[in-house]
């Protein structure tokens, strides 16, 4: 059985994201004093006592307003409630009972999911009980006085919560491949996520900045689990003001860091922009596996050679990502989207792969026999003594040589290509660390000193 889902429902600015951060034990959800910051539903792992579950943050519910994103936020909250084992209705104890709270309570009573009522912002224990008492009127049972900021009162609430969850011995959490969807604003990241899921999981709008949180969604395909992370579009730094967008972009950068594979989405109509080049550099610096997803392919007039022409143009700009897989898709029509997860599997396997020292040195021996290391004007030639893989994710290989300065960029690229061609590192960067003779002697001295101790 998959992890049960707990949906957090409430009006705007009652503290839902702060509460979710408290239960998840981090500060991943954006908290900012402005209504409408959370729009999509975002899933986060949490636990209490012996129970693991997923907690879902949702946008603030307003039933009598059809402006901007509010109808779409309602759809997302309703979708979260449909799949939830239990809902937590969060209200604002300092603000008091509102007509909006009454409307949400009436709607929740019509649903077939258990509801727990949590009265937030009750920082004072004595005053908090009086603040919570007002909410008995909603007819949803005991109102728990809590403080999402300080954590007070949440223990009693969670004790009640887990009685609505299945026993711990029925739950198995699969290993998962984390896939971050990254790109500039309006390149189709949320549309791509929806196409991969086959449902409207993220709000799609032509308005730049629609997605704000990094939205996690898990899907199962066969025996494999994928965590798809939709992110906010990343604009040029000089165009970003402090506030909601600033926090959104930081979440996007963190999503790159915690992913195994990045789906780097590029708008085929715009081509590879300067901002795309900067994002590509950021992804490489983080050492992530990459799939170049060239979106909006349905909008391009084509003949038999069009795809090769576009591929050549894109890779000319992203020449430093020549190892990445590339696919031309339409998130709008679904064209080729079904092939993406197969490419993710290949890239993730390469990213995690470990190769024995003997195999690495076989590749080196053959590479050197075909193309000897360069010789300097003084007649001094580079020598590679041996290589070994020191870590994975990404694969990192240490090459022990007589002098790293004797190996120019062309030869280093040649060795990199040999490892890729012979070992099949597809879709992942491979880091080569060139260590000189002096470094080897220092390491040997350090090992001897350790043995003496």
Question: Could you characterize the architecture of this molecule?
Answer:
- With 453 residues, this protein is α/β, with parallel strands linked by helices.
- The protein has three domains: 5-170, Rossmann fold (3-Layer(aba) Sandwich); 176-352, 3-Layer(aba) Sandwich (Rossmann fold); 357-452, K homology (KH) domain (GMP Synthetase, Chain A, domain 3, 2-Layer Sandwich), CATH 3.30.300.20.
- It has helices at residues 16-24, 70-82, 99-109, 125-133, 154-161, 189-197, 244-257, 274-285, 306-317, 340-352, 357-370, 409-423, 437-452; strands at residues 5-10, 42-48, 51-57, 86-92, 115-120, 143-145, 176-182, 215-221, 224-230, 261-267, 289-295, 325-328, 384-391, 396-401, 431-435.
- The strands form three sheets. The chain has a six-stranded mixed sheet with strand order 2-3-1-4-5-6, with helices on both faces. Strands 8-9-7-10-11-12 form a six-stranded mixed sheet, sandwiched between helices.
- Strand 11, helix 9 and strand 12 (325-328) form a beta-alpha-beta unit.
- Helix 11 (357-370) packs across helix 12.
- The longest helix is centred in the C-terminal third of the chain and has 16 residues, at 437-452.
- Associates with the 50S ribosomal subunit.
- One of its GO terms (biological process) is ribosome biogenesis.
């Amino acid at each position: 059985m998959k992890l049960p889902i707990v949906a957090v429902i409430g009006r705007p600015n009652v503290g839902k994201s702060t509460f979710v951060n408290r239960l998840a034990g981090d500060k991943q959800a954006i908290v900012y004093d402005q209504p409408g910051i959370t729009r999509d539903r975002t899933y986060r792992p949490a636990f209490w006592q012996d129970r693991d579950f997923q907690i879902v943050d949702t946008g603030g519910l307003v039933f009598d307003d059809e402006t901007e994103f509010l109808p779409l936020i309602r759809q997302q909250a309703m979708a979260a409630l449909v799949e939830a084992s239990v809902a937590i209705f969060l209200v604002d104890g300092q603000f008091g009972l509102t007509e909006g709270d009454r409307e949400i309570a009436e709607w929740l009573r019509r649903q077939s999911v258990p509801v727990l009522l949590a009265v937030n912002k009750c920082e004072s224990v004595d005053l908090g009980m009086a603040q919570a008492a007002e909410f008995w009127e909603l007819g949803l049972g005991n109102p728990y006085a809590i403080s999402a900021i300080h954590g007070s009162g949440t223990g009693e609430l969670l004790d009640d919560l887990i009685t609505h969850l299945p026993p711990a011995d029925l739950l198995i959490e699969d290993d998962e491949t984390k896939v971050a969807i990254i790109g500039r604003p309006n390149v189709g990241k949320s549309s791509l996520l929806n196409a991969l899921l086959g449902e409207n999981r993220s709000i799609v709008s032509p308005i730049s900045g629609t997605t704000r949180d990094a939205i996690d969604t898990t899907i199962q395909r066969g025996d494999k689990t994928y965590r798809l992370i939709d992110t906010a579009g990343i604009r040029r730094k000089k165009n970003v003001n402090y506030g909601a967008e600033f926090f959104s972009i930081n979440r996007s950068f963190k999503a790159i860091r915690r992913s195994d594979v990045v789906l780097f989405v590029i708008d085929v109509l715009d081509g590879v922009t300067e901002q795309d080049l900067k994002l590509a550099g950021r992804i490489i610096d983080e050492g992530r596996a990459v799939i170049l997803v060239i979106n909006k392919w349905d909008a391009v007039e084509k003949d038999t050679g069009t795809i090769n022409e576009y591929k050549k143009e894109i890779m000319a700009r992203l020449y430093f990502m020549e190892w990445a897989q590339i696919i031309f898709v339409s998130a709008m029509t679904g064209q080729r989207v079904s092939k993406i997860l197969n490419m993710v599997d290949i890239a993730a396997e390469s990213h995690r792969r470990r190769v024995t020292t003997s195999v690495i040195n076989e590749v080196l021996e053959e590479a050197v026999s075909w193309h000897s290391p360069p010789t300097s004007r003084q007649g001094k030639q580079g020598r590679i003594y041996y290589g070994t893989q020191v870590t994975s994710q990404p694969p990192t290989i240490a090459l022990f040589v007589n002098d790293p300065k004797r190996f120019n960029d062309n030869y280093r690229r040649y060795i990199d290509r040999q490892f890729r061609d012979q070992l099949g590192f597809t879709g992942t960067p491979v880091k080569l660390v060139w260590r000189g003779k002096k470094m080897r002697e220092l390491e040997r001295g350090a090992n001897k000193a350790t043995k003496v101790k």
